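Reminder to self: keep the SMILES exactly as supplied, no canonicalising. Ligand is zinc ion.
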Amino acid sequence: MTSTTEKHIFAKQVLTEAGWASDVLIKVDCNGVILELKPDAEIEANFSGTRLQGALIPGLPNSHSHAFQWAMAGLGEKSGKGGDSFWTWRQAMYGFVDAIQPEDLQAIASALYMQMLKAGYTSVGEFHYLHHNTNGSAYDNPAEMSQRIFESARESGIGLTLLPVFYRYSGFGEQAPNAGQKRFIHDQQAYAGLIDHVAKLSEQYQQSFGIAPHSLRAVNHQDLSFAIEHLNSIDSKAPIHIHIAEQMKEVNDCLDFSGKRPVEWLMEQQQVSERWCLVHATHMTAEEIKAVADSKAVIAVCTTTEANLGDGLFSMLEYKQNAGRWSVGSDSHISVDATEELRWLEYQQRLAQQSRTLLVEAEHSSNGLWLWQQAATAGAQSLGQKAGVIKVGNQADFIELNTDSFALLGKEQNQLIDAFIFNHQLSNDAIQSVWVKGQCQVKEGGHMHEDAIRKNYQKSISRLRQCIN
Ligand SMILES: [Zn+2]
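Structure tokens returned for the bound complex:
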């Protein structure tokens, strides 16, 4: 929520649109938007605003989240019979889904978003598909679960773009949904009604929204066009997210059904543009890579989840060569750490290429800076939010790096970001504070509402554990 008055912040170092600046006075309006950014400012001895001694960098938008999955992170690491796969993991996930009540979803999402803030994410795109009651019927308020997510964003203070998922089928060719999917399913009219509710809620909670047709296997061509048209009737710029090519099985099923690969099919059938976010574009040909890059859509790379689920390696270098836009998402939340998503995006390439510092702007430039800035700007684009760069007119979403921490001590400017990402320490104290729309949500590692959020989470987890065992 925003404050009622203008806020003044004086920061020692700030990474601005024009590069690093010192002694910066930042004025933030009552809606959390940066009004003025004044480098080399002198302040009065009796300055009544906030003084920040660390270095400010833009907060990172998290483009892809399924909040409830966090409560089962770490539970899918026991080997299965005859080899484990994404599809056996998904079956286990469906078992867990059956037990979650609205208050559990809220407790889990609030705790998760709090952890995200502590880990450097200032906003999140919630790809939300747990819509209905445990028996598959709609709640009295069909947007009950969506509203719980808005409440979690309010409790934690994170910026939210809610992306209600449109899910109809269990596979290509309109295969009937299975029992594990009963809480996800809508027909076109019910989905349009949900979007109408969510549009109102986003206004009420001063947050953003978009749509998320789940995947090409979960909706048909008409459903996809219907959802986009309905969204356009409310907001023709709001984001559209879709899972696109995570697993080879999905690519092969799409080929069998349509004769086209998923990215190829989507690029031919829809006007893919800047408002699109393709999640897990893991399996693409050179032509598909170029087409997505040229469309200016964002690809959400979920490095740690894609590794955890054994999806495959995203063609990051080829996509970069085509000037493709990309962001990161913590997806199943097997890791909630903005730096780890970026560090391993780079490390995957180092291991594959037997080389170093591959994801950079040019020779002799900072690896960390390129990773952070690309993910921040494209992340904000994917969420339809004015953020990702600290500049006038954007939301005051930033993190203050602790220049006295073990990881960052003695580093300057771009070295601070390099060390923040690559000099990773357990019990990291590199983040001093985290700000969303000009409000401080995390200070010295602690969240403003840590105790209450933790208590609710513990209550839900102990109840859920009994339901599952
Ligand atoms: Zn996902």
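Points to follow up:
The chain has 14 helices and 17 strands.
Residues 64, 66, 127, 243, 279, 331 surround zinc ion (CB under 6 Å).
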